[in-house]
Each structure stands twice: as C-alpha cells, then as structure tokens.
Design a protein that fits this description.
Number of strands: 5
Order of helices and strands: EHEHEHEHEHHHHHHHHHH
Bound molecules: fe (ii) ion
Largest sheet: 5 strands, parallel
Oligomer: single chain
Length: 336
C-alpha cells in the first residue's frame, strides 16, 4: 500500500516532534512545517499531501487564514483534508473551523491513539469518497454508452424498414451534429442532437412497410399514413421522461420555416432549433440518396433546392451552413 503523506503545521516544535514520532510509527510519511507560509511553499514545490494537520494559533497567519488561503489556491476538484490542532476547547473555535471546511479537530496536547484514530478515520473517509466518485463516474459512462447503443440499435431498426434509405438516420444524425457544431452548440447539446437525428424517423415504426417501400405514387390514404410518422415518433419518445427534448426532432422535423409544414404548422423560431437543423439535414440526405420513387440528385441541383428553400422550407441561417458544408465537400465526397 502507498504510504500516506501527512503534513503537520504548528509553530510549537515540541508538538511537531511528537506528531512526527506518532505518525511515523504508524507508517505515515510525515513532513513538519512551522508556518502557513512554509506550507504554501511546500505545496508549490511538492504538490498536495494526503492530509494536513493545522494549528489554529500561530504567530503569522493563523490556522483559519491558512485554510481559507488553501481553499482559494486549490484547483477545481482538489480539496485537501484538513484537521485543526487546537488547545482551545470552546465551541466557537470548532464551529468556525468546521464552517471553513475543516474535517475534524484534535486537541493538544494530544493522546497518541486519538491522533491516530482521527487521522486514519479522515484518510479512510476521503478514500471512500474518492472510490465512490470514481464508481459514479464509471456508472454514468456505462449508462451513457448503453443509451447510445440502444438508440443506435433503434435507428438501425428504423432504417431496416426502408430498403432504399439504408443508413439514413445515421447520416442525418451526423449532418445535424456538424451543423450544431458550427452553430456553437455545447458538447452536451451536440450529443443530444446526434441522438435526436438518429431517432427523427422513429415514428416510421408505426407505418406499414408496404407504404414505406412502395415505388409507385402513394394514394391519399397512404400519404396520410406516412404523414403520421412525426406524431407517432413524438409520442414514442415523449415517454422518455429522462430526456424530454429527445422527442423534438422526431415530432417537428417536417415543420416548415414558413409555417406550412406538419403536424403542428409551427413557424420560424416556434420550431425548436434542433428540429430546424434536422429538417435541413434530412432534406439534404433525401436528395443525395436514391429513393424508391426517384434517383439521387446531382450536387448542383441539391444546392439550388436548398437555396430555394431558404425562408420557406428551411431556416435560412441553417440552410446557409448546410450550403457551406456542401461547398467544403464534407459529406458529398464519399460514403458517410
Ligand atoms: Fe421524416
């Protein structure tokens, strides 16, 4: 086991000596220092110890000031455990020390067993907290990976229904992500829109395969069935309470910027930004792939369709970003 490093700060040499003897005999590495200034000097050269025993009454800065300064200097995520050494047993001292973030008190002159019990207890507590934090972190990652895998599997299931649009959901997710990046979305929102893109057509699960894959003109009833997929998708994803926004893309990716889309006829900024992005990404991918009812369009034609759709079908700002991406040949030069 790695030896724990204890730093003891006290202006009383007798105390320092005694603490060093007791703690060394217990298997600790011990550094003794005479003032808060020496503590900061030590930390700047050697880094943070596992625990600090800190005298309250010292001639230069007292223990409270040193602790305050320590917390100020510590980087995010670092909170070195501090136990105060005090000769004073009034409650005020304890309250003040604890509220500044001290873990415990040890009274001087100390009894060896008490000193060791308190120090070891504090060290154990800190290491348990660290283990717990690590465990939570690992579980959170696992959960994220799991939901991502479930969503991807679901996206594959959606795409498998439509023999012509193999990989459509993944491509729409990727285009949407790229647009979101250029719009300055945070990492968290970028992940979110990727998921929304993957699931935007989830409502097609509720539309018969024979309608989805029909290579002749759809009749009115069939068309009405297809047009139900945003609502179906919205209500499927709306049940996921942990991610209430996940449904936005599925529900509103067939809305139009001019308000003439479906299912709700939302207009402009009434349509959530994620859905506006997915609409453009979806249209781009549809035009760039062979469909049951037509062949893919040449890039120049795709561009002019997007230009034409600015302000009518598409949010003009998002359409411009899509055009930029096409010009940079990000998605058009090979398989995605
Ligand atoms: Fe759709």
């Amino acid at each position: 086991m790695v030896k724990k490093l204890v730093v003891v700060v006290d202006d009383d040499l007798g105390i320092l000596k005694r603490a060093r003897t007791i703690l060394t005999e217990d298997g600790k590495d011990v550094v003794v220092l005479k003032s808060g200034e020496m503590l900061f000097d030590y930390i700047s050269k050697k880094g943070y110890p596992d625990i600090i025993l800190l005298d309250i009454r010292m001639p230069e800065s007292d223990g409270y000031e040193v602790l305050k300064e320590l917390r100020k200097r510590e980087p995010d995520g670092q909170e070195t455990p501090v136990i105060f050494l005090t000769g004073n047993d009034d409650d005020e001292t304890e309250i003040r020390g604890l509220s500044l973030g001290a873990m415990d008190f040890i009274r001087k002159p100390f009894v060896a067993e008490v000193l060791l019990l308190r120090v070891n207890h504090a060290l154990e507590l800190v290491s348990l907290q660290k283990d717990l934090a690590n465990e939570v972190e690992i579980k959170t990652r696992e959960n994220e990976r799991l939901s991502f895998q479930v969503v991807s599997a679901l996206a594959d299931a959606i795409d498998a229904k439509d023999t012509y649009t193999n990989g459509h959901s993944k491509r729409v997710a990727m285009y949407s992500l790229e647009i979101a990046k250029r719009m300055g979305f945070s990492m968290e929102r970028q992940d979110e829109i990727y998921m929304m893109g993957l699931l935007h057509d989830v409502g097609k699960i509720g539309v018969p395969d024979s309608v989805i894959n029909k290579n002749k003109r759809l009749d009115d009833d069939e068309f009405a069935l297809i047009q139900k997929h945003p609502e179906i998708g919205g209500s499927i994803l709306g049940n996921i309470e942990e991610m209430p926004r996940l449904a936005y893309g599925a529900k509103w990716h067939h809305e139009r910027y001019d308000g003439k889309g479906y299912p709700d006829g939302l207009k402009g900024d009434e349509i959530p930004i994620e859905a506006r992005i997915i609409t453009v990404a979806d249209a781009f991918d549809a035009m760039m792939s062979n469909r049951s009812y037509r062949k893919m369009l040449p890039v120049e034609k795709v561009k002019s369709e997007i230009v034409q759709g600015k302000g009518t079908q598409f949010d003009p700002k998002i359409a411009d970003i899509m055009l930029e991406l096409i010009d940079e040949d990000i998605f058009t030069n090979g398989e995605v």
